[in-house]
Amino acid sequence: MKSEFIKNEAYSFIFSAMRYDNALIMRTCLETGLRVGDVCSLPREALQGQTIRFTAQKTGKSGSVQISADLANRLRKEHGKWLFPSPRNLSKHRTRQAVWRDMRLACAKLGVAEHASPHSARKTFAVDLYREKGLQAVQRALQHDRLETTKIYAFSDKNVENLVENFDFDAFAELVAQKVYEKIKGIA
After folding, report:
1. For a disulfide at 67, which of 71, 84, 160, 184, Cβ 3.0-4.6 Å?
2. How many whole angstroms separate alpha carbon 109 and alpha carbon 90?
3. Cα separation of 162 and 112, whole Å?
4. What is the residue-level pLDDT of the chain in tens, covering all 188 positions?
5. Three-state SS across the chain?
């Protein structure tokens, strides 16, 4: 399945329909451009101040990336071996499949694009960085050897329908109402 570009504005809706920990993983992907598997497997010591140090699983390349103070503070709230521990076994990290499944369910509830996936965050990151700093900055950030590969990401917003315009606001409102009801009743 080819992941689609998602406009930045749509992520807040998607995150609100996801489990908090999975949404935090997605937010990390969106701020860093890292692949979801690389984010899920970050050990606690990878976070140093507002810097995340990583080694990409796909390429074996090491790097570091700056994140916002807000995200860094949220990531520090967990304790243990992993930044994103598995809820079933704290000695293991959360899986990319769990994040993918949660995101797909959230997108289905909200009527968001059929091919939205955690990898969409990497494309959104690339498009935003391209608009701000250019193609070379995207190539460095995504650690691509070939500029042709970078172009696939940096230009992934071309000819994509506006997901915010096509967003199912009624489904979103229903989901919010359900969450508010659960909070009031003490279910959540």
Report:
1. 71
2. 29
3. 10
4. 578 888 888 899 999 999 999 999 999 999 999 999 999 999 999 999 999 999 999 999 999 999 999 999 999 987 789 999 999 998 999 999 999 999 999 998 988 867 889 999 999 999 999 999 999 999 999 999 999 999 999 998 874 444 444 556 676 677 777 778 877 887 65
5. CCCCCCCHHHHHHHHHCCCHHHHHHHHHHHHHCCCHHHHHCCEHHHEECCEEEEECCCCCCEEEEECCHHHHHHHHCCCCCECCECCCCCCCECCHHHHHHHHHHHHHHHCCCCCCCCHHHHHHHHHHHHHHHCHHHHHHHHCCCCHHHHHHHHCCCCCCCCCCCCCCHHHHHHHHHHHHHHHHHCCC
Sheet holding 51-55, edge to edge: 47-48, 51-55, 62-66
Q: Helices 96-110 & 20-32, crossing angle to 10 degrees?
A: 100
Place of tokens 């451009």: 33
d(CA 25, CA 140): 22
